[in-house]
Amino acid sequence: MESQSGNSGNHLESTLRENRIFTPSEEFCAQAHVSSLAEYRERYARSIADPEAFWAEAAGELDWFAPWSRVLDWQLPQAKWFVDGKLNLCHNCVDRHALGERADKTALLWVGEPTGEERRISYRELHGEVQKAASALRSLGIGKGDRVAIYMGMTPELAIAVLACARIGAIHSVIFGGFAASAIADRVNDAQCVAVLTQDGSWRRGTEIPLKQTVDQALEQAPSVRHVVVLRRTGTPVAMQAGRDHWWHELVAGADAVCASEPMDAEDPLYILYTSGTTGKPKGLVHTTGGYGVQTYLTTKFVFDLREEDVYWCTADIGWVTGHSYVVYGPLANGATVLMYEGAPNFPDFSRFWQIIEQHKVSVFYTAPTAIRAFIKWGDEHVEKHDLSSLRLLGTVGEPINPEAWIWYRDKIGGGRCPIVDTWWQTETGGIMVAPLPGAVPTKPGSATLPFFGVEPDVVDRSGKPVPAGSGGLLVVRRPWPSMARTVYGDPERYRKTYWSDVPGCYFTGDGARRDEDGYLWLMGRVDDVINVSGHRLGTMEVESALVAHPKVAEAAVVGRPDDLKGQAIVAFVTLETAARAAGDLEALKQELKRWVAQEIGALARPEEIRFTDVLPKTRSGKIMRRLLRELATTGKIAGDTTTLEDFSALARLREDEES
Ligand code: WTA
């Protein structure tokens, strides 16, 4: 306990201590898209003086079927970018390379989890595969505007499925393969999906995850689905429901080899992706075509400083926004060679990632701080066995990276020579918002540094007033950007209220941040009740609802506690139904509740710790004071302000419960 409270007290100290600055090598700068801080600052200033001109120039690097008439139409909170413009992102990611000089360049370099399984798919081949998959979907009557859920593992067909939807204008809703049946059903129902694309099973650490079976379970509660397309991957037997279920390989074999790209309006929805909020069910954030395509394209080009010969590897699953923007759309729009790995980093052993980097000469590597902390824990010997000299640039995303992990990443993985781009962004922002341009911006371990061109973040108080350099505040964005989410699916009011009402005139990110004297941004984590477990956002509400759905649970409050490995770990305070409290084995019940949550939401949401308590501390208006619980879970005591507590005895009792 001492050391943990010492830890939070250390926060200031460690940032003060963190005055190391790393400048990119001359060699790196010489070849970079932007090669000095002065050049960055000058181009940034220009982009902010006239963002519409800046983004229009960027958009000109994509293929359009029809030009836009206006760059931006902004009526808070509704943005329209590239008004009247027509384009198709599958065309931009595939056709324009396949029909040009990159036809024989590898688009997807896929590494299966079982050792030895690999596939190289050139842009020409990808063009063929995507057209067949798109024709297959059309043959099922799926077309523009239809919602299609995708629940697959990291196979090339997952990327192909996403691109095929984009090609025909169907709105994809990718559901991470780790989610459980009820989470799938909620998402499918929310968007009224007409089809689900899935696999028999997927590989994870050598065992089979039964995806199709989970889909079957989910669809018992999701009547909108007319078709299920099943990719054969593991060969595990699955039940096929006649009329509804189709094998991927059979559909594609009979499909037309040619399938024209649907001309999409710049503001036509491209996809829905669900993310956790503080209250209620997950929000389906809607991204549209034009602005999203432009910003993911441009940020990939500049932040990863892409070169034609790069082998680019972003380790994110396509089920998260990072996979959407930086495995599929951004890098493919740039004509990059994208490495995609199917499985776990520690299978068959702890050196799998390093072995892949060595074998395939990966040059750009983008991963999450939680993964880096796991690598550190597994030991340097797994890294040192491998030649990582092909790497030239490293990236991180998903949560703040602690300086220790940053330095380890730089030294052990980057050999002290690769710049690190710490990229801050969100599902809602669609693309990278704050990150160093690696040939231009000196980096400080733990800071995401400076904003991307055309993006204007600020650190403010509740009234929207900027706070002085060095103090903490709320991170907001002052003006619209092209890849911003346009709405919450089916609930525009929730969109306005969640993001555009807290701080007048600004987009509120939900994150706290501090800006230093050099203008560098230091992210300080969420200021709301969202927990970030291993770089994935979970709403406290979702976990609480799952707990309360258990017959023995009366009430639950869930908070995050700092965790060395996961960033945050879930601690659940639970009050039981009286009968349950009196009877039975409480230890066994704790285990049962952990399993229950994993089953309801997915393993990611499994609480690290369950604490039973008689009462939960609440405000007079009945809101659970998670701040106090957070403090209790973290430091073991409560020192904060308690004047809004409704029942003062609740705290005392809570402490007693802790001690008992
Ligand atoms: C956190 C992931 C600090 C932040 C792309 C944000 C970060 C949330 C960083 C979004 C970073 C992401 N430094 N914190 N570089 N990147 N975050 O929607 O709290 O899964 O609001 O998008 O992750 O998570 P999401």
The value of Rg in angstroms is 24 Å
Q: Tell me the span between the first and last alpha carbons.
A: 17 Å
Q: Summarize the main sheet.
A: 8 strands, mixed
Let me know the average pLDDT: 92
- Which class of secondary structure composition applies to the elements? alpha/beta
Give a count of the beta strands, DSSP E runs of length 2 or more. Answer: 30
The CATH class of the domain at 530-659: Alpha Beta
Query: Any ligands, ions or cofactors bound here, and which?
Result: 5'-O-[(S)-ethoxy(hydroxy)phosphoryl]adenosine
Looking across the biggest beta sheet, what order are the strands in? 12-11-8-6-7-14-15-23
Q: Would you identify the CATH architecture of the domain at 530-659?
A: 2-Layer Sandwich
Description:
Helix content is 35%, strand content 22%. The strands form eight sheets. Strands 12-11-8-6-7-14-15-23 form an eight-stranded mixed sheet, with helices on both faces. A seven-stranded mixed sheet has the order 5-4-17-16-18-19-20, sandwiched between helices. Mean pLDDT is 92; it is low at 1-16. It starts with a helix and ends with a helix. By secondary structure, it is an alpha/beta fold. The chain has a domain at 530-659: ANL, C-terminal domain (GMP Synthetase, Chain A, domain 3, 2-Layer Sandwich). The structure holds 5'-O-[(S)-ethoxy(hydroxy)phosphoryl]adenosine. Residues 275, 320-322, 397-400, 422-427, 448, 509-511, 523, 526, 532, 537 line the site of 5'-O-[(S)-ethoxy(hydroxy)phosphoryl]adenosine (WTA). 5'-O-[(S)-ethoxy(hydroxy)phosphoryl]adenosine binds at residues 275, 320-322, 397-400, 422-427, 448, 509-511, 523, 526, 532, 537.
